Amino acid sequence: MKKEPIVVRVMLVGLGNVGTGFLRILARRHERLAARYGLVFRVTAAADSSGLAVDADGFDPAALVALKAAGRGIDTLPAFRPHVSAAEALGQAPCDLVVEAAPLNLENGEPGLSVVRAALANGIHAVLADKGPLVLAYGELSDAARRSGAALAFSATVCGPLPVINCGRRDFVAAEITRFRGVLNATTNFILASLEQGKPYREALREAQDAGAAEADPRLDVEGWDTAAKLVIVANSVLRTPASLQDVAVRGITDLGPGDLAQHRRRGKTVKLLAVAEKQGRTYRLSVAPAALPADDFLAACNGWEMGVTFDSDLYGPMYFKTWEREPGPTAAAVLRDAVNVCLPG
Fold this sequence. Notes:
Shape: globular
Oligomer: single chain
Helix content: 25-40%
CATH superfamily of the largest domain: NAD(P)-binding Rossmann-like Domain
CATH topology of the largest domain: Rossmann fold
Strand order of the largest sheet: 4-3-2-1-5-6-7
Strand content: 15-25%
Order of helices and strands: EHEEHEHEHEHEHEHHHHEHEEEEH
CATH class of the largest domain: Alpha Beta
Number of domains: 2
Largest sheet: 7 strands, mixed
Mean pLDDT: 93
């Protein structure tokens, strides 16, 4: 006898590009998710910058996407709950899984940090696309997940669909990773490629913003902090070394111009904003900075909107991974990947 699919009640926090991308996939692939994985994801709570709405029967994912496309907020829904935060609603709303896709905040991790804390404390699984809570409180959140038995998954936080976290945590059994390197930010990689073609920095940045990849305030990207945040997550979760942003030497790309890149190109090199974790004794030296790479370096061939990583280990040798992501759809798919993996029956 065919089993009925398991209904997973979801609180979605953040309805920006990744959050609405997640909703689009649910709308398009709900039958496949039920047939292949035995799961039905029902969004029973949704929160954006305007507030929170709760409906035990579930919201239509396509309708929420249309709401945001029309420029409206959650506060325009009949199910809007004024004066109730997402964290507070976890004690009131039916919820099995929190999907946290709020904007990155490296100062205090909010609003994501509070809702993830509350979810794990209540034994509710948490899937993150937002790096802030992990950068600021990885140890705390991991301990909370262990205590409650809830899952904490975040593969979408580092290079979107690229399985950096999943591979790094799962596939280096008994090995020591001696070096990790990565081109982790597609926006800066696109800007550097444009500079290499002779375009001024401001023009290259404007093109990235027009493409929807760079924010109106792109400092987190171009000053290297988004890359540093990803490196901190890799250090804590994959390399198993406690780290914070203060442990990373960070230099961005804002002082580079077409002339700098042309000079390196004449020498057969290309410049990338490179994240590096180098094993030194019992810990790792962490850095983010522009690096001139020779043409035969795997990461030198990460072009435009591509991101890539390399792992060196004592047992498995060098391993290379690369992906292309100009749009947020693949990152939204990575969120779904985590959601399915933590909620799979059995």
